[in-house]
Each structure stands twice: as structure tokens, then as C-alpha cells.
Amino acid sequence: MVSAGADGRKRMRAFMEQAYPLCRSITGNGVRATLDLLDAELQAALNGPTLFRHEVPTGTPVLDWTVPKEWNLNRATLDGPLGRVLTTDDSNLHVVSYSVPTEVELDLDDLRPHLFTLPDQPDDIPYRTTYYREAWGLCMTHRQYEALPQGRYRVKIDATLEPGHLSYGEAVLPGLTDDEILLSTHICHPSLANDNLSGMAALTEVARRLSDRPKPLRHTLRLLFIPGTIGSITWLERNRRTTERIKAGLVLAGAGDRAPATYKRSRRSSSRMDLVMARLVEERGGAVIDYYPYGYDERQFCSPGFDLPVGRLSRSMHGTYPEYHTSADDLDFVDDDTLVDTVELVLAAVEAVDSEPRYLNTQPHGEPQLGRRGLYTAVGGAVNSKSTEMGLLWLLAYSDGEHSLNDIARMSGLPTEALETAADALVDADLLRPA
Ligand code: ZN
Q1: From the CB of residue 424, how many other CB atoms can be counted at a distance below 10 Å?
Q2: How far is the CA of 316 from the centre of ligand 1 (A)?
């Protein structure tokens, strides 16, 4: 369906254009307005899922954390001896996110510690936050900073930082079983496009495409639109039972810059999503990397107490491109073709996780005696590496519920048909059962 891709491209671009100016943070009305837009996107699909809104009060204990105060910005301005220096009406990156309300007049030297710039990228405004330390600051281009004259400056950060709520969105596409695939993305960054708008746009498009599917998936699909770190921690605190049903998952972040795909394995390293993505991403010339404990919300999902089979899909690795966390990560930085490619990759992964046959070895302690069951006819040296007999051994060795026939075909170099024949024989002998 050519039109699905073309329409999707337009939809994703339109969504990003609408959402780009909103002043998002880990809490506040910018997040709620973004959830409104996401809800409208999902409702526009044929059988689009409802976006459930969750509002968790400030002060709620969540795992080892506490839901913070809610921050809302009206406007931040800086005026100097020559007049207006900056206003967040031009870019919401000009204020350090979570800055405390401030109205102060001070000399340039006293102002400097509150100003943030990028000396190596003198035309870009940096993105800075102070979520968990009450402080204030302003961000500007280094060129603008260097031109500031001595004199008196007036800072006004017209904002509120008060008890309120943490907001996040959750949608469920019911499948034929309670087994779940979790897809999660961040909604906490202000006017930055690749980080996080591309993830929101791609995940919404994935949901639309899967909800248009003529037959439901076997897995139930759960979509999370959450603020970084505190959002996944809050969700995990409130959904411990749900986590037991998650069979595969993906954090989607930085989905639209022009680099090839990068898949970061889950901490388990060979969960079904890890195996499927290793194939799909490598086929496309992308990179597959091992788990490490920093990055995005995979840190929370993969923390050892949960150890969920959740990997991460990105294009460039975060922090490795100069546009990252700067005003240069704008709408032009996101490439529509790449974003469509990310959507297709996620759809292919979901379909593969959902549909590829996987088995469990029912006699996993030592090799079962195949000769006794008439399954192993080979004698000394007669075993051809392409034979069904080899397929029996590969299937018994890797049928752990995570490796599919396709994964085992790739590892063993055996033709899929030989593995299918071998799998049928092992199922008949009660040595394998469908996972
Ligand atoms: Zn970021």
C-alpha cells in the first residue's frame, strides 16, 4: 500500500509541526496539550485506540523516587541596557526547564552564572533542565552572549512550580492473547524535533497502521507516551502486574535523523525483540549494540528487579550528533524518509515477534535420547550439516521461547524448511511445544 506510507509521512510531519512550539517538560500543560494532539492522531485512525490520560499527584512515592512539583511556564524574558535580550516567545529553549519563578535585577557579572551557551556551536541555543534542583537559568547562543554589554539586567521568569500532577498517556490495542508488546516513547522535551517529537510521531503512526490491520495481532500492544525517567518509573510502580505479561518491547527515541538505525539490546540480550531486531537492523545496514545502563527509559525497564525484554531503537546514538539537545535539532533536522523507515522497521519487528513460530524444549536438561524415539538415524560421520537431524539439535538447543525458527535458521545456516520438518517431528515426540 503505497498510500499508507505517503499519508503517514504527511501525518507525521503535520503532527510534529503542531507539537513543536509547545513548551513540554516532565510535567505541566505543555505535556497535556501534547497528549491532546496524540489523542487526536489516534482517534483519526479507523480503529484507533483510546489514549488514557493518567494524572499522578505531586508527592506520590514511585519506586525510589517522588513525583515532583508541576512546572508551568508563561514566559521568560531578559532585558538589558540595550533593551530586550531574549524571550521564550521566540524559543522555549531560552529558559532552563523547571526554573523557579524569578524576578530579579542584577549586574552582568552576577547574571553570567545563570546563562548557558555552547561556545563550540556559537549559533545554537542549548537545551538545559533543572528538574530535581530548585534553580533558574537562561540559554542563548554564544554569539549573543559574547555581545552582552556591561550594565544592569532584568530577569523575569513568569512560571509556577507548585504541587500538581505528572501526566502521561497510555493506549492499548487488544490482541488475541494477554501476552504484551510494549512500545514506549518520551514526551518531555520542548522545541526539539528528533528528540522527542520523532518518537511520538513514529509511535502514533505505528499504532495507526496496526489498528488498521484486518486481523488483530496475537499480542496485545501497549503504547506509552511518558516523560523521561520519572514517567517510566511512575508507570512501573503502578503496573508491576502488567510487567509480567510483557514478552517484548521497544523504547523509541531519536527516530528521524538521517543515520542508519541503531538497535540497543535489552539487558537480557537475547529476548525475542533482540533477536528479531538484530536480523532486521543488520539487513538494513544498521548497528546492533549491547545493553549499557544509561540512555533512555530502557534503563528503568531493564533495571534488574524488572529486567524486561525491552530494547531501544534510535537512528544516531543520543549525544553523538552536534544537533543533540540544541536548537539545531529542529523540524528540518528530521528527515521524513528516515522517519517512515523507522515506522516500517518497528512494524516489521512487531509482526515478526508476533507471528514467527517459537518453541519450548520440554526436556531441556541434557540432550533427550533421540535414537530411542526413532528421530536420529545418523551414524558416525553421516550427519550432513544441512540435514534435518542437525535441525533437531539446533531446535533443542535454542527452543527457549525466545528464539524463533527464523532466528535458529540464521544461526545454524540450515534451511527453514529443514527446521520446520524437524520441529514437527519434535512436537510429535513431545520434545517441543509451541511457546
Ligand atoms: Zn533528550
Answers
A1: 12
A2: 13
Cell of 396: 533443542
CATH topology of domain 358-434: Arc Repressor Mutant, subunit A (1.10.10)
> Residue 108: helix, strand or coil by DSSP?
helix
CA of 231 to the centre of ligand 1 (A): 14
Query: Which residues fall within 8 angstroms of residue 353, CB to CB, at 6 or more apart?
Result: 181, 219, 247, 248, 272, 273, 276
Topology annotation, domain 72-162: Glucose Oxidase; domain 1 (3.50.30)
The kind and range of the H/E element at 89 are none
CA of 314 to the centre of ligand 1 (A): 12
**CA of 173 relative to ligand 1 center, distance in Å:** 27
Cα–ligand 1 centroid distance for 378 (angstroms): 57
| DSSP helix/strand/coil, 291 | coil
Q: Which three-class secondary structure state does DSSP give residue 182?
A: strand
Distance 189 CA to ligand 1 centre (A): 7
Topology, domain 5-67+165-355: Aminopeptidase (3.40.630)
Per-residue pLDDT tens, the chain, 435 aa: give them.
445 578 999 999 999 999 999 999 999 999 999 999 999 999 988 788 899 999 999 999 999 999 999 999 999 999 999 999 999 999 999 999 999 999 999 999 999 999 999 999 999 999 999 999 999 999 999 999 999 999 999 999 999 999 999 999 999 999 999 999 999 999 999 999 999 999 999 999 999 999 989 999 999 999 999 999 999 999 999 999 999 999 999 999 999 999 999 999 999 999 999 999 999 999 999 999 999 999 999 999 999 999 999 999 999 987 789 999 999 999 999 999 999 999 999 999 999 999 999 999 999 999 999 989 888 764 444 445 457 889 999 999 999 999 999 999 999 999 998 899 999 999 999 999 999
Q: What is the pTM of this model?
A: 0.95
